[in-house]
Amino acid sequence: AVGPRAESAPGLSTDGESIYLANRTFVYKVNQTGSQVWRYPEKSSPSIVFYAAPVSKGGSVVFGDLANKFHALASENGVQKWDFTGAKGWFLAAAATETGLIIAPSLDRSIYALDETGQQLWKYDGNFGFLAQPIITEERVIIASQDHQVFALDKKSGEVVWTAKTSGSMNSSPLFDQSTRLVFAGGMGHEVVAFEEATGAVKWIFNNSGQMSAIWSSPILINDNLIVTDDNGTIYSINPKTGNLNWTIVTNEAMMAGPVALDDGFAVVSIAGNIRAYGMNQAPRWTLSLANAQVYTTPVLASGNIIVANKTTKNEDLIFAVDQNGVQKWAF
């Protein structure tokens, strides 16, 4: 044996049309019809594993691996542009990007700020490894941490602007609402918290009177519905301004993936691969079961289709595309 085996859920993202998947020994770019555009690297290596969701922006695709490297490829053809080797631990979380800035969280307990050539601009050192994708706002970088807190860094210097304690570990990316300037985050503390983006002050806390379970995924916001799923399979709609409960839907299925917004409603997927679509009046629209699937990754919407990443080894299909009427269009 050469060492412990590391296994996680696939990393999935989209630029709205093309789909990017990090799964074990390869990173793939797949087009909107389910055909492979490229994969990286050309040949697999047992020492390099990919699970961090690739992020496509400005002609580049950036992601880290479990060999402590962070990569940038040309999005057109998958040719490597550069790699960053300054980290001392794995990259499991997706990076956050904007023009000229890449924020890469690592399990070595540090947050790395890189420019578009891979040069380090600053580094923040924390107490635990980071599993959640950061948020970049106009002046700050918002981080959800395993250290039972959400905190903000100055985007230019990496200095701490504010910290806010939570009741549990935060393993998924928060959601920032530009209109209210609020940051919404859920985690292992069995609650959803709204913070003011400028100060970190807590606006409200929702835990469904102590009945909410752990939250592994990011919420979505549709009008006055902050929609979040817990691992018991309950779907909650919370008023984003007040923190009051709008409604719940109980699916009775274990769920770690988060909801995805559709053109007229939203969809959720259970670990067992059952996709359920609902209207905003909570009425069920359709259900589709993916055979032999295990889903831990939040789906994305690409070219109008719901894209689902599959973890199981019992099925060779890595990605499923399902239209918004519940019909499977293709599998990769």
What does this structure look like?
By secondary structure, the chain is mainly β. It is 0% helix and 45% strand. It has no helices and 32 strands. The strands form eight sheets. It has a four-stranded antiparallel beta sheet with strand order 1-2-3-4, with no helix packed on it. The two termini are 32 Å apart.
What is the number of strand segments? 32
**Could you tell me the radius of gyration in angstroms?**
19 Å
General shape: globular
Structural class: mainly beta
Low-confidence stretches: none
Beta-strand fraction estimate: 35-45%
With helices defined by DSSP (H or I, 4 residues minimum), what is the helix count? 0
> Considering DSSP H and I runs of 4 or more, what fraction of the residues is helical?
under 10%
